[in-house]
Amino acid sequence: MLAHTDTFTGLPNRRAFDELIRDVIVRARRGELQAALFMIDIDNFKLFNDRYGHQAGDDCLRKISAVLRDYAERRQDAVARWGGEEFAVLLYGTNLEGARAVADEMLEGVRGLHLEHAGNPPGIVTMSIGIAMLAEKFITESSLWVQAADHALYISKRSSRNRATTSG
Known about the structure:
The termini are far apart. The longest helix is centred in the middle third of the chain and has 18 residues. It is globular and about 50 Å long. The protein has one domain: Reverse transcriptase/Diguanylate cyclase domain (Alpha-Beta Plaits, 2-Layer Sandwich). It is α+β, with helices and mostly antiparallel strands. The relative contact order is 0.19.
């Protein structure tokens, strides 16, 4: 049996999250839901690890995991460790306005940890978020949904970091 939990953070891993996305797509084909997908990356995390050490980096990942879980709190929502310092969040039954509100709360929650990060311009750990709403064009190919959220994340990181961007 293949593992579905990231033992480090206790979150579902990418394999489990891929299954969740497939389930959302099946439900969407029946016209049963709206959903938002977030791709999240901790800003300048390599610099954090280089400066403070991997143990501090591990602690940082655990704390951010807890914040993400706190704001994706509904039973049907899902947070997963995508890999490295990347996370994915799936919000069921959420419109664009709701997704933006949750993203803003997550950003504020991470900033509220006040984790020192001298290699990051605000001086604390921050993260960037890319948001993609479930759309008709993603129902046939879920990887396109992930690509849209990842593209929005890239724009957040390229713009100024420490922000959420919605795919167009």
